Predict the 3D structure of the following.
Amino acid sequence: MAITITTAEVKRKAMIPSSETGYDSSIGALIAEMQPALEYSIADIYLNDPSEKLQATLKLGMLEIMTGEFIEQLRREPGNAEEFSVAGVSIGAAAKCGVELIQQGAARLAPYFKAAAPAMSESAASSTTKDRDTIFSADEEDW
């Protein structure tokens, strides 16, 4: 099941007005760059699951990560990270919500990452004795 992230969704999450089209190509490029990598990192069993709630969870996590990255890219533009402080009042610096959004999305997706799934060698018994019962005895144990 393919997950689709749109430019409009990223703009909504980043609180950019839909009428503002100046960032559309940057957002589109970011989606094209990040979506395949994020989908690849999620175990196929979850990506192919038809459950609407699971797919919504995966989409939200991916959307949060992409939007957070876009916000961080905006902060790196010249003039966007400047701050002016007088008598304890700061003006100008953007909040660090991009990093927090990335962390939130990563935490949401963490249980579904391939790295979180146990390897087959760790979760299944392997045997070279085909068609025979596996017998374990106390004599074979090293204590």
